[in-house]
């Protein structure tokens, strides 16, 4: 789930240094096409279709209707569907002033080239909910700028929460960024005042105990997909995105924090060679960043790297060392000097908070002074941007999972707890000293075990009753439905399509996964499979619209189902 933490940090950082910017004269929005990340978006109408791999729509017509407030104003606005029509009543509200509507379009058009459709859609939903609660009848007596400022401050005051204020973060980002763009309805005093607010995020661990799309730990299928994409990535060691590829694998394999990646130096990477076998083992001395009263790089924990990752890092080090030799020769010619190779950071990344904290404590970290402005998150985003460009060129679907260092860290912790890593050891791996911080991952394991137990009781209650001697074999056979694929009970199209030799609840996506699965034994009734085929094609149109690309209808599971239907219909003629 797209997080606005970075927007909040950006706003707080700019609070004291927000420059005074002259307002531009109001002009209607007149940009017909905006180049987004992967394609061009038609912005000439009131409905912008910005989705890349799934349907994502910015419907400005929603601003002309009254939106009923949800039962819980503080719910996570990332869960709001931008096309959820049940929240829109038929009551017509005071129309949104054209000037504000056009300024909103200018703002969103500026966001499309650099942000994902999910992020832009989430911001749009938060803004629409706020604007739908505003009253524009007083615009004639007071200026639109004053009315907007007054109602925004009132809205923030009413909707403050003790747990989740992501939507308010989005509104602040919208207002302050629009002011920086010079748009006509945003004033300096309000933008400056909004920088003082400190908004709360979600409760710690809530996205671990409950599933939030794009924010909770990766599922097994999502993690496998991420592994596959990273393995297939054809990024040369000399390419700048190779740093992002390395950092992604380190975050997945070790569960590191972004701060730890920033502080890693070349001397922290060690290669041990066995004198007898010549086998190499790779070790990374990871600095601790948890204790604030300690100097940076005061404590380390040695972490052994997987062989493939150690080889990648060794290759990267050799490349950096060769570049360093060339730079040393160049600086020697002009009488300059550069720090020794061992005292340079592994990743040339920067993190503003770290630099600020150490500067305030007068800690001299020379290698943090002149680093690029890229954060770990930006480095990952650029790397996935390069990967998606190649995938689109090769005719593959882009990788659209939201990957952040925090999400990979929670995925590492969740999987470690599920595999039985002791809680004390997991706390050490995650650089925690208080066990309360890792208890949530073990609560998840208990919750999962209870859910799994309920599934087995429901799916295999007849079999268990047979082994307990409560029913006989004839009753067991009569109560068991042999031609039903295991799946959600409410999904009617699963019933009767065949039998699964796996004999257990499927952890894939039936019925889509059934037709490409070697364990699937299809029934010989073509009408059953025709219903599934029509549903699959309807799902594509729901997600991508009536003008969905033809290749989406040639997905492996759709083609497999279609071939089966054609074969059965030919046999029944």
The CA-CA distance between the termini, in Å, is: 50 Å
Shape label: globular
For this entry, what is the oligomeric state of its chains? single chain
Could you tell me the mean pLDDT? 76
> Helix share of residues?
40-55%
Strand content: 5-15%
What is the CA-based Rg, rounded?
A: 28 Å
Total number of strands: 11
* Helix segment tally: 20
- How many domain regions? 3
Structural class: mainly alpha
Largest sheet: 3 strands, antiparallel
Read across the widest sheet, the strand sequence of neighbours is: 7-8-9
Q: Unreliable stretches, pLDDT < 50, 5 or more residues? A: 1-16, 66-93, 351-373, 481-493
List the helices and strands and how they pair.
Elements: H1 5-14, E1 33-35, E2 40-42, E3 47-49, E4 57-59, E5 65-67, E6 88-92, H2 98-111, H3 117-132, H4 144-158, H5 166-180, H6 188-194, H7 206-209, H8 220-232, H9 242-254, H10 258-263, E7 269-273, E8 280-287, E9 300-304, H11 307-333, H12 352-360, H13 376-393, H14 405-418, H15 423-429, H16 439-459, H17 461-467, H18 473-479, E10 498-500, E11 520-522, H19 526-544, H20 556-572
Antiparallel strand pairs: 1-2, 3-4, 5-6, 7-8, 8-9, 10-11
Helix pairs in contact: 1-5, 3-5, 5-6, 9-11, 9-13, 9-14, 14-16, 19-20
